[in-house]
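[Automated response] Your request has been received and processed.

Submitted sequence:
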Amino acid sequence: MVRWQWISALVVFAGGCALGPHPVYQPNPNPMRVPPGDKDVLWDTVVDVVDDDFTIDREVRVRQEGEVLTEGRIDTFPEVGSTIFEPWRGDSADAYEKVESTLQSIRRQALVRVVPTGDGYLVDVTVFKELEDVRRPERATAGAALFRNDTPKPGKREPVGERVSALGWIPLGRDTALEQRILSKISTRLALCTQDKLPPGY
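Generated structure:
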């Protein structure tokens, strides 16, 4: 009972003025369709947005190969989730995610694909979420000698989509809240780039 009281208090704290106002992000289709335009502007915008929350591990740009545009892809390093004490970080996209990352060891990793189509591009954002599989809670009262039957076998890896989970981490699926935030930021920045290119008085 005490545990849930602490969780409720943290939720109230995280949702209040301690974290400041948060913009409301409208749901976007994922993958999100982007109209035809400069592929380099699109790519630089996507990289800039992803770099706000993640460190990029591998980047393959959209390229022109003859008459064909190749698919672009960004892979990031895993990022430990921000807590309620780190309001300047946006990888924990809402109050629930902030509280969860405060109470547990959560990490995220992003995969972003930019797929050229005949009438533009598709921006596909996937954010994987994992929980650290600790052998024993820090303040556990049970002895370490007790046997557990829920510990994964050594060397076992669980696939999640196109990704293989690392040992010591339990897959929690996708973080749709952060995916939506990334897509919204990409859409907003692309709109601003388009406005900047319009002639004066348009």
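Summary generated for your ticket: Helices lie at 2-15, 39-53, 95-103, 176-197. The chain has one domain: 2-132+161-197.
If you did not submit this request, please reply to this message.
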